[in-house]
Amino acid sequence: MSRPKVLCVDDEPRVLQGLRQVLFKSFEITAAPSGEAAIALLDAGERFEAVVSDMQMPNMNGAAFLAEVRKRQPDVSRLLLTGHANIDAAIAAVNRGQIFRFLTKPCPPEELLSALRDAVAQHRLLD
Q1: Long-range Cβ pairs for the range 39-43 (8 Å, 24+)
Q2: pLDDT value, residue 43
Q3: Within a 13 Å sphere around the CA of 59, how many CA atoms are in the beta-carbon half?
Q4: How many CB atoms lie within 10 A of CB 38?
Q5: Where would a tag sit more exposed on the chain, N or C end, judged by fewer CB atoms within 10 A?
Q6: What distance in Å separates the CA atoms of residue 33 and residue 31, rounded to the nearest whole number?
Q7: Do 92 and 63 meet the contact criterion of CB atoms below 8 Å apart?
Q8: At a CB cut-off of 8 Å and minimum separation 6, what does 49 contact?
Q9: DSSP, res 26
C-alpha cells in the first residue's frame, strides 16, 4: 500500500523542512509556503488524505485556509499546527474549517505522527 498523501502548509521554510524530516518515512509529503499556493495545488487536482496548516500566515490564516480546503475536498482530514494558540483561533478553526485536530508548536514528533495516523484513518472511513 502506498504512503498516505499529506499536504503541509507553513510560511516558515524551517518548519516545512522539520515536518518533512519527521513525516517522510510514514507519509508522502507535499509542502506549500502559503494558503494560496496550497489552494492552487488543490485546484490543480491534487488529492490528499490529510492537510496540516500553520495558523499565522500572511494573507490567509490557517482557519480561513482550512475552510477553503473543506469546500474543495470535504473528506480530507484537516489539522491546525500553531505556535500562537488562543481560544479565538481555536474556535475559528473548529467552526470554519471543521478541523480534526488542533496542535500546538512545538509539537512532539510522536504526537504529530499519532494525530496524522488518526487523521488518515478518519479520511479512509469517510472515503
Answers
A1: 39/65, 39/68, 39/69, 39/72, 41/7, 42/69, 42/72, 42/73, 43/72
A2: 97
A3: 9
A4: 27
A5: N
A6: 7
A7: yes
A8: 4, 5, 6, 76, 77, 119, 120, 123, 124
A9: T
All 3 cell numbers of residue 43?
A: 485546484
Per-residue pLDDT, 45? 96
Query: How far is the C-alpha of 27 from the C-alpha of 117, rounded, in Å?
Result: 9
Dihedrals φ, ψ of 92, to 5°? -60, -45
Helix boundaries (H) for 25-108:
35-43, 62-72, 87-97
77-82, strands of its sheet edge to edge: 28-32, 5-9, 50-54, 77-82, 101-104
CA 74 to chain centre: 13
Residues 66-70 have a mean pLDDT of 94
State if pTM tops 0.70: yes
pLDDT of residue 102: 86
pLDDT category, 91, cuts 50, 70, 90?
confident
